[in-house]
Predict the structure.
Amino acid sequence: MSLPNATAATLVRRSPACRVGALVLVTLLSACGTTEAPRQAVPLASVAREPLAAQTSRSPTLQQLTDEAAALAPLANSELGKRFLRATDALPTVGARIAHRDDNTREFFSPAEAAAMPEDRRKKLTAIKLDEYRYYYTKYGSPLAYLRALDLASRHGVTDVKGVRILDFGYGSIGHLRLLASLGAHVVGIDPDSYLDALYSQSNDQGAVAPARNVYRGHPGSVSLAHGRWPTNPAIATQVAATGPYQLIISKNTLKRGYLKPERRAAKNQLIDLGVSDDVFLKTVHASLAPGGLLLIYNLAPKQAPADKPYLPHADARSPFSVKQFARANLEVIAFNTEDHEFIRNMGLALRWDRNEKGEIVNDLDSNLFALYTVVRRGN
């Protein structure tokens, strides 16, 4: 994604608004508290699992992901979604790593980037230890929240990702990228956040990913990351073009009308500037898609603030592009600003987004969690 102030805008886009179990995104919830009786959680079916040798010695983070996959299993309505969840059993343990932060600019640097700086600049950096939890959850929450986007992609033709090329615009976490790659996909993640660039700076963070052998035994998939502005950064534009064309481009909680076209005044660092006009951006999307390929925009949002309170750009989850704009780019609209509130609230219950770390109910998802999605297909 392309932002005028990449780090600040990304933090606003997906930073925690409150603690509700696992890390909750600001694009999910903007306030804590509930005034109504809580919804009843959906029944959690038992999940038959193929035993793994390392299952009994999984780290707390990997066990949390496994537990979340089991909780989400009853909601998966496609074979792709079910395999995506099952693949969590094969995620590898990851050691802690160090990133360096400039406390003034809030920008992050890898150890190699910090070492290359002049000594006076390097001394001003703070070393931050990032453990396995941060590797998979970053600042933005469970990577398994991509389940719904994959179910929708499957509904519209992407039923198997073996050999499929996928681009994630504003990826936010490597977790779901690795899961898709372990099912045979070749995935490119784009994000301007320097935190992610520093976190995923080791050589084995990218490249081939071993198959999740409990659900997939084909050729390995791969993960590639690009940090910066797309399509305005020439190097990233070249990388994306060289890896494509893509059968699927996903944008989750990034391409929002509130970020690109706010209806009320908002701070600049809460907005997204694509760096190009809407028409140029959509033409670039069209050129990046294979014929018949899908662009899937999936956005979560809290309720909008009242008129006498500061406007919340992240609370406007509508597509920033109109049906006419998609048509001009030869992108056929299949679904447009389609409501998905019930599903995302059930997902929120399964992932305990309504609760804090003590298990106390702190948010009413019925009144403060919404989802909209748009799906378009490239013509010939």
Notes: Residues 252 and 298 are 5 Å apart (CA to CA). The first strand starts at residue 16 and ends at 20. Confidence is low (pLDDT under 50) at residues 1-55. DSSP finds 15 helices and 13 strands in the chain.
